[in-house]
Structure formats: C-alpha cells, structure tokens
Specification:
Helix content is about 75%, strand content about 0%. It has helices spanning about 1-15, 20-25, 30-45, 50-70, 75-105, 110-140, 145-165. Helix 1 runs parallel beside helix 6, helix 1 packs antiparallel against helix 7 and helix 5 (about 75-105) packs antiparallel against helix 6. Mean pLDDT is about 85; it is low at about 170-180.
Amino acid sequence: MLAFVSLPFFLESALHRSQVETGLLMTPWPLAVGIGAPIAGRLADRVSSAVLGAAGLVVLCAGLGLLAGLPENPTAAEISWRMALWGLGFGFFQAPNNRSMLSAAPLARSGAAGGMLATARLTGQTIGAILAAISFRIAGHSETVALGMAAALAAIAAVASAARLYHPSGALTPKPAIVAEAP
C-alpha cells in the first residue's frame, strides 16, 4: 500500500503524466497479479509456500526498486514492465502465502482464520498509507523515498518468508489446546 499510495503522485507530479496516463500505466500491475497468482497457486501444491513467497517477494522488491530508480524521463514501456514485474512478484507471494495461512488453521476455525487474514491485510494497508503520508511529510513529496521504503520492506519480508524453511522441527506446529476438566 505504501507504493500504491505514492505511485500516482510520482507518476503525476514527478513524471508529469495525466490522470488517464497514470491509470493506464498502473494497469500492468493487476494484470500481472492475475497471471502470476494462479500459477503460484498451482505450484503451491508441489513447492513450499516459503519458497514461493520468498521468491515472489524478491521479484516484488526488484520491481519496486526499479520503479524507484526510473530514469529522468521514462517511456511508458519502461514504467509498464517495472509495474508488471512488481505485480508478478505480488501474485507469486500472495496466493501461496494466503493458502499457507488458511490451511494452518483447523477446519472448525477456518472462518476465524479468514477474518484474521482480512484483518492483517487491512492493517497492512493502513500502515502503508500512514508510512506514505509520513514519507511525504519528511521527504517533501519525494515519492521515490516511499517506493524505496516499500522495496526495503519487501526485502525484509522476503527474508522472513525464507526463514520459514529453517525453523526448528515443530516450531510452526500449533500446540494442542489445554482443556481444563471440571472438578
């Protein structure tokens, strides 16, 4: 969300694109998510979600970093392929990560797990918007700072996702609930 809030300002203010151009230049992102997520979802049956999530976050990070480092007067193609790379990375992260989170909950708690996933997503979106506003205030509408921060956060998340591969045996296994018996 940090990148999504700052990107329209970047395209319109720094790159002097119209509102229509800005909307069209952001279109490759959801298209790439729509392509990447189903592929990652199918791969999640055979490949660890930690691997897919980390790989997706690395690609997402690269796309954001490349957007932050755009040349002075980029063409629409230069912006579009970076947006698509960012979206492809997000698709490869989101689908297996959501699957992993929801499948970790017992069937009887699947509704609560879905609610927690939605809460986590909205919390992340809110924090991202707040960080964008803070970066605008501190850096004087330097949207590249916000894009760089988003890339750095994606890199940290990639490390966290990859760390799931190296957890001690049973560390991610939920412990059985302790039920107190009536006296």
